Amino acid sequence: MDKPGEGQGDCGDAGGAVPFFRRWGAPPGACENLTTVAHLTLREAGSALQRGEATEARRAVAFPSQVGAASLPALPPAAGEGAPGYGGGMAKEKITFRCSECGWVSPKWVGQCRECGAWGSVDQAGEAVGGPRASATTPRRPALPIGEVDGERASLRSTGVGELDRVLGGGIVPGAVILLAGEPGVGKSTLLLDVAAKAARTARSGGLGPVLYVTGEESAAQVRGRAERIGALEPNLLIADETELGVVLGHVRQSAPSLLIVDSVQTISSAQVEGGAGGVAQVRAVAASLIRVAKESDLPTLLVGHVTKDGGIAGPRVLEHLVDVVCQFEGDRHSRLRLARAVKNRYGPTDEVGCFELTDSGIYGLADPSGLFLSRTARGVPGTCATVSLEGRRPLPTEIQSLVAPSSGGSPRRTTSGVDHARVAMILAVLQARIGADASGADVYVSTVGGARTVEPAIDLAMAISIVSSLKGVPPRPDLVAVGEISLTGEVRACTGTQRRLAEAARLGFSCAIVPAQGSEDLTDACGITVFTVSDLATAIRAAFPTDSQ
Known about the structure:
Blueprint: H1 14-22, H2 28-32, H3 42-50, H4 54-61, E1 93-99, E2 105-106, E3 122-128, H5 162-168, E4 177-182, H6 188-206, E5 211-215, H7 220-230, E6 237-241, H8 245-255, E7 259-263, H9 280-297, E8 301-305, H10 318-322, E9 325-330, E10 337-345, E11 353-359, E12 362-365, H11 370-373, E13 384-391, E14 394-406, E15 414-417, H12 421-434, E16 442-448, H13 460-472, E17 480-482, E18 485-486, E19 492-493, H14 498-507, E20 512-516, E21 530-534, H15 537-544
Parallel strand pairs: 4-8, 4-9, 5-6, 5-7, 7-8, 15-16, 17-20, 20-21
Antiparallel strand pairs: 1-2, 1-3, 9-10, 10-11, 11-12, 13-14, 14-16, 18-19
Helix pairs in contact: 3-4, 12-13, 13-15
């Protein structure tokens, strides 16, 4: 509207009324009769029209009782009368903004995602309100009574790698989609290439289709070089370096494989979806298409996924819900040991761990990894104590090494490797408070052998014995293994799987063990080991050292 004083600001001024109604196409005769309308509030009417409230504008003007209806202009239709912009007619498009990192949705654009904190990741994503509804289609397979369903279709098939079969629950189920995630350089591609070669060898002997390995991160020549190095050259193994989803699906239709491996799912993109490869929409669309093909053709599929800085799987969280199995492949790149864990498994347990050794010539499963976690030095060295931790249901022997050295000045240093730093600090405080073993003025170093990492509370007793041994300079009993959790009161608490731990220690040649008295009544067999049951930390320390060394 024009400013007051320029022809329309005063409600009683005919000169102000004329420009207002001429804007809506009123004839000149109707505008002249407006001088008799004393209660016209043009300012209110104009404000209501600008807000799109045509009904309120009619109420504010109230001209039908003063002026002939034939000589007045027609106001815009009221809300709900079918006028675009006034609430009726065509469905409006709702504009939203979506984060490409985590999928967070915002009604307006922001520079930083409120969910994940990423900068510059929020892009516009139009979403039509009231879109077409899904129509019923003819099912591909009719619904069957549960007793008539073929159970053989869900039978497990070995991958050829025993440690991976252990994690998966015995093998791969036809039509299962497995997501293998891990940090860059941990050995995911090497492991899957070894799996592909062994699966191709098994498929050729069984008369099955080939194995299709799709790589989006490397060229086919690079994959061949790695295959030559690890001995994975198989004629039944097909390699395709593609990044387009349509081309990948074309390879699947053309080769009819018995196993599909995609490395990685974040590098594949679809032309029908906006955004670059690795985005939220792209990863969701690519994963959904591959899962649909796997389920329709009973094709087992292995997908490689990247991880974020925090160790989580990159991309939308819905990816973990869509797949059947989620495995984490982890390990220190400075160590040869690699561990595979099942985070989610629809076909088996999630408490199994697979051990692998990564070498220059390939990756090998370790059915007995005890040699990696025990030192080769002779017995009788102060500051060492062996324990048996449980990785899932698998007992793994681990040697704890401690070194208490005089501090060079300033604040004493506390350095750990493979164990929880907070647990070490707690054990040092308990040792000082309960048995008088003061290490507050010395540097303390606690580490595991072979790069093993364990945070299980059952290793507390072994850490305490190794620290006291280094503090005294006296080695503990020869061939000793200690298991137990230490509380703040100095109590040695029970732990799970004591029987399995003792059996593994006996197999490795240990002759004596210290276990908590709580729960020891459930032990059915000592496995030929001299067992000392203790209830507190002081008793455990006395049992750990020979009498002549006290």
